[in-house]
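Input record (one chain):
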Amino acid sequence: MKPETITSRDNSLLRRARAVRDGKIEESIFVEGLRLCEEAVRSALPIEAVIFSEELARKEKARALLNELAQLSDRLASVSEALLASISYTRTPQGIVLLAARPKMDPVKFKASQPASPLLVLMHGINNPVNVGAILRTAEAAGASGVITTANTSDPFSAKALRGAMGSAFRVPVWTKASYAEVINWCKESGIETVCADVEGTSLYSAVDWTRSKALIMGPESEGLSEEELASANEVIRIPMHGQVESLNVGVAAAILLYEAARQRASRMGR
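The corresponding structure, as predicted from the sequence alone:
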């Protein structure tokens, strides 16, 4: 397929790209950057449109991807760097943008995807998309079997969260817009123990048996989980801190806890 050339900022495709970028069209996602676009292709996401800069098309490394995308998408568009900047969400345009279909994962499909002893991450009320993306990326790296986000959590498929996750959002099962109570009830019914982190936690994070079915609950960055939400969990744990530090970044805390879970699970498997 020969790409079309777009020369107007008001072109309908560029207007749609900005709307997807801004979260105004929920069925589509905005994927920016060569590496992330490669991850989208590997994940077999349906590609709606490809918008790339004239400069990128001249680079040998990008040609193979563009040739592949020409077979996968019904619409390829070449634009100037200035026009690409008009749709980019970064200060420095990444050379290529994909509009792709949002991965489909309803609660039934998500639950069916889980192994006998799942390790889940529930993000509840985390409103910074950078933190959401980072936790998703760490969840995959630590071997988590799935991620759940509640309705008041930043969209894990927003442009900023996707950039932070660096492809993990395409590979890890993600159940979005869940009700906190619904997830807690499902975990109880399924024998999945829920664990919250809090500075007043009764147990050290390393004293928990992470080899059992577990759902790690990470709460809002500023206030943390409410007393009622903490009470609904099976365990409330703490990460010891020295000096005058009162709390950790939610992404850092999630990484510490998930890697302890990964360590214990690997030890059980004799790795």
